[in-house]
Amino acid sequence: MKNILSIIILTFLFVSCNQKQSDKVSYALADMEMEEEIIPITREQEIKPPPPPLPTLDNQDVIKKKIIKDGRIGIQVDNLENSKSRIDTLVKNHGGYYDNESFNNSDWKSSYNLKIRIPSTNFENFINKIETGEGEIKYKEIDARDVTDQFIDLETRLQNKKNYLKRYNELLAKAQTVKDILEIEEKIRVIEEEIESTTGRIKYLSDLVEYSTLDLTITKQKDFKYNPANRGNFIEKLKQALSKGWYGFVDFILILINLWPLWILLTIILYGWRKLKKNKKNK
């Protein structure tokens, strides 16, 4: 009897311990979800004393500005091929490359439309070289966008997500019930997708910052020349016209033949009308 009582007590204690462990994981999940909704600075202000005064600017790390530079320039030249060759050399010497290149030729002008990527450190020097070369500048637009705040915001979000991911992985190692495991794994999946998206956005902005974009158009105007349209050989066109006429006549005959029931009906109607008219005259 004492052995049975001891087994019952031990079983009760084991179940109670597992339940407490599961409750701890659930409480931890609930606390983390609340932390996502509450601004961390508010909680720190409630627990910690006011922070010490900030150091002077001389002791602070200067945040490097993130600037995206791009622009568009149009140049009219006298020798298109020489100008294009010069631009090719400038792009190579400044460590750039063509993101897109197209050539257009018409009766009025010939032009190259070039989309050039240049390291931002060489962008201004590259533009100066273009301006001091041959040709007349028709238009010029240069823009600079400060995206430092976007970088700081994205990097802060990325670090916070990584911290949450670390804590969820720690909870996953402690979880014992299937419900807790599935719930934590779903949280981890969502956070990993957010980390991947934020990382991709940071890489995209970094590429725009490191390489500036210039849309360059080089144009050469042409003297207008009248180019009469080629009307072709008269004999060939006459043969083509006769052929089309004959085929049209054949098609017309075939259409009339296809309507033979209509012709029979019209013949019967015409015969009846004439007979009726003749009877009226005899009366």
Proportion of helical residues: 55-70%
Radius of gyration: 42 Å
Q: What would the principal axes of the Cα set say about the shape?
A: flat
Structural class by SSE content: alpha+beta
Strand order of the largest sheet: 2-3-5-1-4
Low-pLDDT residue spans = 36-62
Determine the N-to-C terminus distance: 137 Å
Strand content: 15-25%
Total beta strands: 5
Q: Looking at the chains present, what oligomeric state does this protein adopt?
A: single chain
If helices are DSSP runs of H or I spanning 4 or more residues, what is the number of helices? Answer: 8
Report the sheet with the most strands, covering strand number, pairing sense and barrel closure. 5 strands, mixed
Mean pLDDT: 78
| Order of helix and strand elements from N to C terminus | HHEHEEHEHHEHH
Q: What brief labels describe this structure?
A:
alpha+beta; 283 residues; 8 helices; 5-stranded mixed β-sheet
Reconstruct the topology from this structure:
Layout: H1 2-37, H2 40-47, E1 67-76, H3 80-93, E2 97-105, E3 109-119, H4 120-131, E4 136-146, H5 148-174, H6 178-210, E5 211-221, H7 234-258, H8 260-282
Give your account of this protein's structure.
By secondary structure, the chain is an alpha+beta fold. The protein has helices spanning 2-37, 40-47, 80-93, 120-131, 148-174, 178-210, 234-258, 260-282; strands at 67-76, 97-105, 109-119, 136-146, 211-221. 63% of the residues lie in helices and 18% in strands. Strands 2-3-5-1-4 form a 5-stranded mixed sheet. Strand 2 (97-105) and strand 3 (109-119) form a beta hairpin. Helix 1 runs antiparallel to helix 5. The longest helix has 36 residues, at 2-37. It is flat, with a radius of gyration of 42 Å. The N and C termini lie far apart (137 Å).
